[in-house]
Design brief:
about 150 residues; mainly alpha; Arc Repressor Mutant, subunit A; 3-stranded antiparallel sheet; about 10% strand
Length: about 150
């Protein structure tokens, strides 16, 4: 035993040496920080992801949105219903294909997204707090490289 208190979390040393384990632990902490920041506005991480994607793409079909965000159709339907109920998104008829609806950000959604962006940025700073600015940039660069490598499409 390493002399830690019973309530301390002390993983096996073998796990602590695994980059995959460390990345998972770091991701959990980052998700916790972001989740708490968003919860202060009554929003979940999936809500934020949807608002961000719509803001970036403009009006988009629900199917395309689900594929881009890797959100299951029924889960996305529920998220969009919640966002629509709070007035942050609207479903509108596609002018090019009247059989299809698009999801768009409302003005209230754009304002909410600006507030959420600020909260998420604060959470990012809290997550990266132990690192220097240069180390934070290097971490982002390395993580981006790993993600790009492992998500390549053939």
């Amino acid at each position: 035993m390493r002399g830690v208190a019973d309530d301390d979390y002390a993983p096996p040393r073998r796990l602590e040496r695994l980059p995959s384990w460390l990345a998972g632990r770091a991701a959990k902490e980052a998700q916790r920080l972001v989740g708490e920041a968003l919860a202060e506005e009554g929003v979940r991480r999936q809500h934020f992801a949807v608002l961000t994607a719509i803001a970036e793409e403009g009006a988009v079909s629900q199917a395309a949105l689900g594929r881009r965000l890797w959100i299951d159709r029924s889960d996305l339907h529920a998220v969009l219903n919640e966002l629509e109920e709070t007035g942050l998104v609207a479903r509108v008829q596609d002018e090019n294909d009247r059989r299809r609806n698009l999801v768009e950000l409302t003005p209230a959604g754009a304002r909410a997204l600006r507030r959420l962006d600020a909260r998420v940025e604060t959470a990012q700073r809290a997550f990266l707090q132990p690192l220097s600015a240069a180390e934070g940039r290097e971490l982002r660069r390395l993580l981006s490289r790993l993600v790009a490598h492992h998500t390549r499409r053939d």
